[in-house]
Amino acid sequence: MLYIRFFLEDIDDYCYLCEFKKLVLEPAVRGTMNVMNVAVEVKVPRVVFTSTMAVTYMDPNRNPDKVVDETCWSDFNYVRNIQDWYCYGKILAENTAWEVARKRRVDLVTVIPPLTIGPLLQPNVNASIVHILKFLNGRNKTYGNAVQGYVHVKDLALAHILVYENHRRRAGTFASKACVTDMRLCSDEVNPRVKPYKFSNKRLKDLGLTLTPVKQALYDTVISLQQNGHLIVFPQSNTSPNVSDCQSWPSKPALAIGSSRISPRL
Q1: What is residue 71's DSSP assignment?
Q2: Is 141 known to be catalytic?
Q3: Which of 21, 22, 90, 252 does the annotation list as catalytic?
Q4: Is residue 204 part of a domain?
Q5: 121 and 182, same domain (yes or no)
Q6: Which residues pair with 179 in a beta bridge?
Q7: Prediction pTM value
Q8: What's one Pfam family the UniProt record gives for this protein (predicted)?
Q9: Range(s) of the domain holding residue 13
Q10: Domain identity same for 250 and 149
Q11: Is residue 84 part of a domain?
Q12: In the predicted model, is pLDDT for residue 1 greater than 50?
């Protein structure tokens, strides 16, 4: 089995990967194939496939000066060797969609978002929002030495509409205005900062998409977490914070939610 041959030395990892393959990889590929085949049968004029930024940038041999856009793919063998099974599954799923599209002549277009944040549609916290929540509730004690891209969920929804209505192919949306990072905080002598890739979302902007600033997207996320009971709202606060308060939250404990863990540079 291709999926488990790297884990034979450790039974725990072996069992984990077998379970991951069963619960994630197989449903992703089989589900993608089923949806594409049904689209052919009912004569859907165009299929919009939600991919992920992870399928584009993970290639250690890529020139760091290259601009990463919707034409780029992560190195499949590299992703498999480092055992990034999330990315591995996403690559398999999108490749499955394109394979069916070519064989059955489906009009397919993909949207490639980074981490999606913003107001919750459901009362429960999903995997993307957990990424934000764990910095606010104390679960994460440190910031990773990395760059993180975000997109507002409303922008992502609009991107799907735009590419459906326009004759584009593999369209990409890579960040909500900017990536959140602080080079001074995310570098050290032992692990010097590697030059990050530049990402382009020009094709979506050309279709008329205006991206929400990261600060607004993060603010909307926090407010939604409060409204759904996932973050405590301090009772001594008589007013709700505005997005402009994000810059000064650490100095306003009455408005701060996990204020000691929110960077003032947001």
Answers
A1: T
A2: no
A3: 90
A4: no
A5: yes
A6: 149
A7: 0.72
A8: Epimerase
A9: 1-112
A10: yes
A11: yes
A12: no
